[in-house]
Design a protein that fits this description.
Elements: E1 6-9, E2 12-16, H1 23-40, E3 44-48, H2 57-72, E4 76-80, H3 84-93, E5 101-103, H4 106-113, H5 120-128
Parallel strand pairs: 2-3, 3-4, 4-5
Antiparallel strand pairs: 1-2
Helix pairs in contact: 1-2
Length: about 130
């Protein structure tokens, strides 16, 4: 059984699923990812499914489950690289990714995961002292 590689990019873990996952591989990925989130303190999980030709109900549930595990461990999940045919099939099957954001590609997914705190100091100053000149 091949394990799915989990790469760390800043505070984000990148999971690139390039082959159809069997039950045991998917369960192992969930365990490995939960372990890596706690080890690294990652705040985001980016799952690239561009290599998947189809997403069935099993994969849909697995991705939802990973998002739930990540959320409990204080990380946000973004799924990227979904092919149009996969999106159509998911809607037709009634599958939804509760709590999972999506983006077209890895770059856009990483932008979604950028910490909101980058803008916080400036907006905080404006809120605390709105009448003072800048």
């Amino acid at each position: 059984m091949d394990s799915v590689p989990i790469l760390k990019i800043g505070s984000t873990l990148l999971v690139s699923i390039q082959v159809d996952l069997q039950d045991q591989s998917a369960l192992q990925l969930q365990e490995d990812l939960a372990e890596r989130i706690t080890q690294t303190g990652a705040r985001g999980v980016l799952i690239d499914i561009s290599g998947l030709e189809i997403v069935d109900s099993f994969i849909g549930r697995m991705l939802s489950s990973i998002a739930g595990i990540s959320r409990v461990l204080d990380a946000t999940t973004v799924v990227v690289g979904m092919r149009p045919a996969v999106a159509i099939t998911m809607v037709e099957l009634g599958l939804s990714f509760d709590g999972v954001r999506t983006a077209l590609d890895v770059e856009k997914g990483l932008r979604l995961l950028q910490p909101a705190e980058e803008d916080a100091p400036e907006s905080l100053i404006l809120e605390l002292a709105p009448d003072e000149p800048a």
